[in-house]
Amino acid sequence: MSTSAVPSDWQIANLEVCVDILDSQRVPVNNKERQARIQNKAPDELYPYFGATGEVGKIDGYLFDEELVALGEDGVPFLDPRKPKAYKLSGKTWVNNHAHVLKAVEGLTTNQFLLHYLNQFDYQEYVNGGTRLKLTQANMRRMPFPVPPLAEQKVIADKLDTLLAQVENTKARLERIPQILKRFRQSVLAAAVSGRLTEEWREHNSSQFPYENHELSEIIHEMRNGLSPKPNEDGRGHPILRISSVRPFSLDQIDIRHLEVSEKDKERYSLQPDDLLFTRYNGSIEFVGVCARVSQLNHDTLLYPDKLIRVRVDKAQVIPEFLEIFAASFEARQYIYSLVKSTSGQKGISGKDLKLMKVALPTISEQTEIVRQVAQLFAHADRIEQQVNNALARVNNLTQSILAKAFRGELTEQWRKDNPELISGENSAKALLERIKAKRAAAAKPKRRKTKA
Hints:
This protein is an alpha+beta fold and 453 residues long. The protein is built from 13 helices and 23 strands.
């Protein structure tokens, strides 16, 4: 921390001057031992067991019984400014050796001020290691720590508590919107396949209702599983999709592999616009039987693997976009779930079962109107979701912006002008720091001199 970045009446000290370091009191206990210790214990006999980033379990005892601050020692996202590195401990707690345990020096700073500072600090020059960064105690001790006058620290901490709570509330509200939009899309799909979406349209257009039910096999020309040979990662042959390429209404043609095939297989398994792809197998039941349409091809030749099923529809009876909508509906998903079978950890559905799925089929003209309205409503939801994501990105950056301003003295600039008596003389940060240093020096025990025998 540069001294030029803080107000002139603040002081900068090494962190070790401003905190008591209680690392020597930590005791690591492996998970097996902890499980043995807590077995058959009542909940009120257990205490939280903390690690690098927070509570990781329970244990039948405690090491600390006061308000403290834990700062991750390793396994912490030190270089991600948006993620916390420190957290508060309250009451009876146990801490392992993956977190430093700190206590603000009374009369010099507070645990709340310390916590906020540690969560905005740039650890770049203080951590070491490769994939698992570590903050050694030696490096932690030499970290610079700003010391405003004590009264100002309390004002800063209070302002931060208020502002960051507002940010978290805003973030929580924004994070709820995608779930609301998910329910909205589901309601659109339900209305689309039930006829409610086009009820007004039918009043002015000739269309049969209730819809006739057809088995899927009756309205398609072809259903074919994909290629079984193992693809390669080095670009030999033709592009081939991954199993994960297919998600509802979405086909990823970027994350691909390659496969060398004969001309016969190339012709047989090449995808065309308006082909529908269903997932035949997946590790998660949520993605079994989901459907995506090939709206356009981004490759001259694009193949698909055997855990996907290609469907080509009879366009005289059904348009591909409508069948894609129906496949995402609650009715279709319930049908899929009822027939999913598990094999070696993989969940799947057979083409034979898929062919038996009942599809409520409107006329082609009504299908076209359904597709138009669903696309319009989904586009509206997509725009809102994009706006929410943009807002969330700004909110996530706002926390660090507020913290940075606080520790540059910008949040209390006017307060300092209004309260000069609270930041000068005996109340100044310099006088405060000198008193604490003197008190600590007086409390330190003198080293014994060695005497010759």
